[in-house]
Records
---
Amino acid sequence: MAYAAVFSGMRDLVTIFGEKAAAEMARNLEARIRQGEFSKPNDDNGVVH
């Protein structure tokens, strides 16, 4: 289900901003994901909120 949401979101970005702009937005996603920008913070016990 999450995969479908990402695909749908990318399709919306392309529709709204065009392929070139959407590609620019997506270009840095890998680095941002690896840096934890989209991760939920953990509490002191390692529990994800």
---
Amino acid sequence: MSKAFFLLLAALPLLAQAVSFTNQIKPVLAKQCSGCHQPQSMQSGLSVTTFEALKKGGTKGPGFVAGKPDESLLVGYLTGAKSPRMPFGGKPLPEEDIELFRAWIREGAKDDSAGAGAASAHVPKVPSQPIAYKSAPLVTAFAFSPDGKMLAVSGYHEILLNTVEGKLIARLPGKSMRIHGLAFTPDGKTLAAVGGDPARSGEAQIWDVETRKQRASIVASADTFFGGALSPDGKLLVAGGGADKSIRLIDVEAGKEVRKIDHHEDWVFQGVFGVDGKRLVTVGRDRAAKLTDVSTGRFVENVNLLKDSLMAIVRHPKRDWVAIGGAERIPYLYRLDRPRAMRIADDSTLIRKFDRQDGPITALALSPDGGKLAVGAEAGDVRIFNAETGDLIARCSGHQGGIFALQFSPDGANLVTGGFDGHLRFYDMSGKMVRDFVAAPVELSRGN
């Protein structure tokens, strides 16, 4: 029997049902083709990131002819019938993957993508009564005030202001069910937050710290916001739009969105501004650390070599260097400025990579002097590395679950962690825990 017969037999289970563009075709395109064929880098005028873009094709013509795989450019370039064979410079796709493309086109090349949909009709509300906590709520975000005397901590439908010793100062109720990012302006007078209600709405909040009054609530998107970093001058807030794949810039003083950027091809989780505030780097599930010009919203380039989805980013306090991490479990340190002209599969911006972690990386922090990098993950200890050499300095243990937020104290003496178990833990630079408290006012049941 011929090799082709056995390949066909292997493909039969996949072809028993109609081939799905969303579940079978698009993931292959995203992994193998989107690096050179995305809206920000359309080689031959082609983008493969959406059904509409693939169908439209590029300078060579439409991407496919529904019902006619042998007349479709997509199949021709994947098989090598047309030159150059794709992926360009990479290994040809396995025959079973190519057969999926043939079958999808033969079946009519149908688009089963979920529609963009209308904006959410959900109108979030501020709770009428303070939340009564029966257990510690998970900590998804926290931030030190610039003087290091106060912590703003995420709660449920609120922000909790605590002293660094753990005394509750104030409760700031808001519309967002979850807060995913918190940041004080450099003068400490304003607190910015981002969050929302999952699958319903995203919100940015601007608070006056002295009066404890909310100055602005910006509700947008049909899903929660992530990120929440401020520009160095405290004038702009960046929010990752989660499921709508957007980046939103918010004017802190005016309390309004001033720019929406759509460079990413999947969820956006975090972003940081460059040292001078003129550039922005954002990361998400599309594997890219995307560099953007703040004044125009123009995409500049991907800082990193694409490997796996990214969930965390932090900038060096004095240099245009960023540490990134995500599903690959390996933290990387990159510079924003490329030392030479970009080439295919170019990783010339890489400064160094660090040890592999015990789980996907969810949080990163750099010390005030930039000398130490802290890495938190879904599992295992939080580790502190020498940012200059990559050497491990300390391990911080005692967590009961994943880590969602990390930050060094402004004086650099302590690393603070927060995550699934709802505790804020303070560690010295040897990895010794020196303080542990829950920011939320938990009501103990009788008998405890």
